[in-house]
Inverse folding.
């Protein structure tokens, strides 16, 4: 945002500190023990979030069993969580006493990163809900969406996420409307906070309703399948994948809803709500969500957990000067194991030619043509 001379009613040349003091969000110019604790913990969690989600993305890339639309979207969700970790790490270097030293451009960049990461996560979950709706109602494990469409969908998600993050800098701020500045984000208009919170909460409601409908359908369909067919493993795998995706959605809603409600209360001008008192806790809860998904994958998806172990073992071996193992070699080993697994399951696969994928007892599947 270009700095110009103040015009009547506008405050383009005022500092970030000016807006914070006007909104009542006073920041100490000196580091307190509490500031050190918050920043240290924030940096530590952010680094763990970044590493954990890189692990998920690498696992999806090297394991051919995950080369399906649903896993590409889950990988993109991991990329959004990785982006969140980077955004929070950036925030930790620009918070506390550092805040009052920021220029307005730096402050808007800080907020844009956070807003874009949330939007990317929400849009990813919405895309996953649509993909599951498309496949579950035909009782398939994977959709027939082409790789090209998946790439276009992912590009659309990130385009919209960046655009939504930039909306305040394009004019929905309070630099020329000081009386409508919010408390939690002192250079954002209250009306923007209400819009942002309501939009995301409404999207959450839609996704929860969609997954509830899908779950009811899957449970009903599974009972019929168990009575009239022998596709028990297919039924279990579809249901288990739905549980995993629903847990991801549930944790996201739980972690982000308190912060969005707080933003909405601030936007509505609730002076008795003490939003600043709970702001830090809601931010930490939202940040922890980016760490939840890799944990869910580890406990819910046996194949993903095994891939995690191979990656970590490979990294440990590479640390040994006497070993020559590389990630590419580990990938070859992974693919060799897949080939063996597929050859062992050929007889069982022949009995289910009408299925979209071959299913193993633990929810594993062999590849089919995209």
């Amino acid at each position: 945002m270009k700095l110009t001379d103040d015009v009547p009613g506008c405050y383009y040349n005022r500092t970030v500190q000016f807006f914070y003091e006007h909104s009542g969000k006073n920041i100490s110019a000196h580091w307190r023990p509490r500031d050190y604790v918050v920043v240290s913990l924030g940096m530590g969690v952010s680094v763990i979030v970044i590493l954990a989600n890189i692990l998920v993305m690498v696992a999806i890339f090297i394991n051919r069993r995950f080369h399906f639309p649903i896993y590409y979207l889950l990988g993109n969700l991991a990329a959004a969580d990785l982006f969140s970790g980077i955004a929070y790490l950036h925030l930790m270097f620009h918070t506390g006493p550092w805040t009052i030293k920021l220029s307005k451009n730096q402050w808007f960049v800080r907020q844009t990163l956070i807003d874009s990461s949330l939007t990317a996560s929400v849009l990813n979950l919405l895309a996953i809900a649509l993909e599951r709706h498309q496949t579950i109602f035909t009782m398939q494990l994977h959709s027939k969406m082409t790789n090209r469409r998946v790439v276009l969908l992912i590009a659309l998600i990130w385009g919209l996420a960046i655009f939504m993050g930039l909306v305040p800098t394009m004019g929905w701020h309070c630099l020329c409307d000081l009386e409508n500045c919010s408390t939690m984000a002192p250079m954002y208009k209250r009306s923007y906070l209400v819009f942002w919170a309501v939009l995301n909460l409404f999207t959450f409601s839609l996704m929860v309703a969609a997954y509830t409908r899908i779950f009811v359908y899957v449970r009903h369909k599974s009972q019929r399948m168990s009575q009239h067919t022998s596709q028990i493993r297919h039924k279990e795998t579809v249901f288990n994948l739905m549980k995993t995706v629903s847990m991801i959605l549930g944790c996201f809603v739980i972690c982000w809803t308190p912060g969005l409600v707080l933003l909405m209360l601030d936007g509505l001008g609730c002076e008795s709500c003490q939003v600043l008192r709970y702001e830090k806790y809601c931010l930490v809860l939202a940040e922890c969500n980016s760490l939840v998904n890799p944990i869910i994958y580890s406990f819910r998806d046996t194949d993903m957990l095994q891939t995690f172990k191979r990656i970590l073992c490979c990294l440990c071996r590479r640390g040994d000067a006497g070993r020559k193992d590389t990630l590419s070699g580990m990938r070859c080993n992974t693919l060799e194991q897949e080939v063996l697994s597929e050859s062992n399951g050929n007889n069982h696969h022949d009995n289910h030619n009408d299925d979209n994928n071959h299913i193993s007892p633990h929810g594993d599947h062999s590849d089919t043509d995209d």
Notes: The mean pLDDT is 78.
